[in-house]
Design brief:
With about 55 residues, the protein is mainly α. It has one domain. Helix 1 packs across helix 2 and helix 2 packs antiparallel against helix 3. It starts with a helix and ends in a 6-residue tail after the last helix.
Length: about 55
């Protein structure tokens, strides 16, 4: 659980700073945003459109 929380934190930091995410973190960030609800999904969608990063499901 600690690893997921750490990777999730790294992903959010990368999103905020506009840095490229490690592929291992992308799915974790995506899943976390799904759990965060619609606001999280809207933020993720906006960030993905701006950064043109692809997220595998």
């Amino acid at each position: 659980m600690a690893r997921i929380a750490m990777a999730h934190g790294d992903g959010l930091t990368a999103m905020e700073e506009g840095l490229e995410l490690d592929p291992r973190h992308q799915a974790i960030v995506y899943s976390s945003m799904v759990l965060a609800g619609m606001d999280g999904m809207q933020q993720l969608a906006l960030w993905l459109m701006e950064s043109e990063v692809t997220v595998g499901v």
